[in-house]
Amino acid sequence: MTAAVNEWAFIGVFMSVAWILPTLPLVVSWLFRPRRANAIKLQTYECGVETVGDTWVQFKVQYYIYGLVFLVFDVELVFLFPWALAYNQLSFFAFGAGLLFIFLLADALIYAWRKNALEWA
Amino acid sequence: MLELNASTLVFFIFAVLSIGGALGVVMSRNLIHGALFLIVSLFGGAGLFVLLAAPFMAAVQVLVYIGAIAILIIFAVMLTRSMTNMREVFNRQWWVSAIAAVILLAVLIVGVALPVWGPNGTQGDMVLSETTATIQDLGVALVDGNQFVLPFELASLLLTAAMVGAIVIARDNE
Amino acid sequence: MPEVCDNIISTLAPCLVQSGTNPDVAQFISILLGVALIASFPLLLVIFLIWVERKIAARVQDRLGPNRVGPFGLFQNIADALKLIIKEDITPAGADRLIFNVAPVIAMLSVILIWAVVPFTPYNIGADLDIGVLYFVAISSIGTLAIMMAGWSSNNKYALLGAFRVVAQLVSYEVPMVLALLVPVMLASSMSMQDMAFAQLGMWFIVLTPVSAFIFYVSNLAETGRAPFDLIEAESELVAGYNIEYSGMKFGLFMANEFMHAFTANLLFAVIFLGAWAGPGATSVPILGFAYLMIKTAIVYVPSLILRATVPRVRIDQMMAFNWKFLVPLAIVNVIVIAFVLKLVQVLGIAPSPENASDFVANIPQMVALLLGNAVILAAAFGLIRGTVRKERLTEAARLAKRVQIEGEKEALPATVATH
């Protein structure tokens, strides 16, 4: 118990300290760098052409579908980790239950594939 | 009852992150900011799981909620063009949700406080379990015929169904 | 007490307690020192990594690479870093300032944090979490978020488009990566990285499950945005991708982060599939274990550098198709077959018992069975690929034949004499 607490204390300290390291060069740079901004310099970069319209345009639905397929897989995979971990202690039935779970996962993939949900275009 | 030690301090840090993030979600007018606040809130939740000696749940929280659902929310926001520039309050029924939220909070406070500090409460000293369940135990329980094998398979089926539904809806308008 | 205090790194806390410090404070100081050591190591390493990468790319392209600043141009990157520090830093108009500035820090943090669970030697590991594998997968997903923040806050269409593509790529390739990780977890019966290293004392996992190793390596290439999957900076179409508006040191952080991430991914490969610190004498002389780990990492890292300098970039649709229609099905089949074979090995009783798991000979029957399983998977996969490619070639040939026929009819007309 105390060992596990120590490990997580390490992670906690790591998380609170580690962000200082990437911030340090930013701070040093902030101290030394020149500041000669003007309106043209601050323009949005678009190869010298003035940008037209709003940046936050509507994106196509494909991104969302990939995100969704990923989410489904992610949730199922998380369930599979305890199964893989307890693998050596499982009876043949329990082992089959895990396999059935993976088959259902494969099923979802096949459906998405057949419906062309995995096409980029 | 509350002694000030490192674990209490860490608890308060995560509680503030969690509640502050949740407030940010509700208060911010920018949807992407809202999504980022949600991540802060979820991260606080993950920290609380670690404090409860449930590191697996913490990893799930970060992996699924921060790594997948938050990304999905941002994708969804970018999908709806008119939503990204919404800055003013456009919903006239905010007070309905405010009342609902207050009622829910009251119910939750009573629900949490009564078993602990109520007349028959445990006064917060009860040890929930002598043994700590490992992830291995979880894995065994999930596929054990006498325990959770049916919910386990149903969860898989549910996720498959969710994906089928989402694909049908998303592909519909082409 | 000299006999306690001789190894300052691993026994700092008891050493301090003996000299009269409060145990909690001693614990805290030793943790802090460990954190400082582990967190700053990748940042120092990255300067050397960029030099290695530039040198190797130069050799592949028959150039010299950096060779002016310092011996063999070793100090070139220090000079570059100094230059980046004194460069003007532009935050474009309309950018979301806070998110814009925080994004590079979070990106780098997501890589540094992974180093906390890497077992450097049998005795030295930052934090031996019992969910080590899930920890680094979860931490990597925070990096995805940083890219999204950078792209969104820049207020630039290229940046946003680039970020969206990258995020779609990263989340997609996370699926086969995690699926591939299930097999080592099964073999080691643990998610702790240190246990995984100990489980490989008998035989490295790359020998037992080459298919998993292959999937993990390829999806790592994509996760870290290396060629041929470097769509993160598709110069030809997106100018630079999500970090287009970044300049000065903030850009430097993103760039350094890319190299660091690539090395870290290969480090994880070395830990999970190449036995981490395992090697002759590693248990008695810890520093030797650390050297072995670095050598193993270099052995898998250098080919990825040569690959980067050699192969062209794939198109985004090809990359997505490769992931969802090849890697993910392969990974699923791999998990099913390996799980089945492992259970079979267990039932037949030829698996190495916990006592002789670190004995090479005891692992051989299991290895043979698993290799047979892997061979079946590979044969099936390549059979499928051949079938698909053949079908595509036939349709292409039919299309060409049809076109030739039409052209031929055109040529029959007297007026059109084409000479192409």
Explain this structure to me?
Chain A has 121 residues and is mostly helical. In chain A, 64% of the residues lie in helices and 0% in strands. In chain A, α3 runs antiparallel to α4. The longest helix of chain A has 25 residues. Chain A is flat. The mean pLDDT of chain A is 79. Chain B has 3 domains: 89 residues, NADH-ubiquinone/plastoquinone oxidoreductase chain 6, subunit NuoJ (Four Helix Bundle (Hemerythrin (Met), subunit A), Up-down Bundle); 33 residues; 47 residues, no CATH class. Helix content of chain B is 74%, strand content 0%. In chain B, α1 packs antiparallel against α2 and α2 runs antiparallel to α3. In chain B, 25% of the residues are buried. Chain C has one domain. Chains in contact: A-B, A-C, B-C. Chains A and C meet through α1, α2, α3 and α4 of A and α3, α4, α5, α6 and α7 of C.
Features:
heterotrimer; A: mainly alpha; C: 420 residues; mainly alpha; globular; disordered C terminus
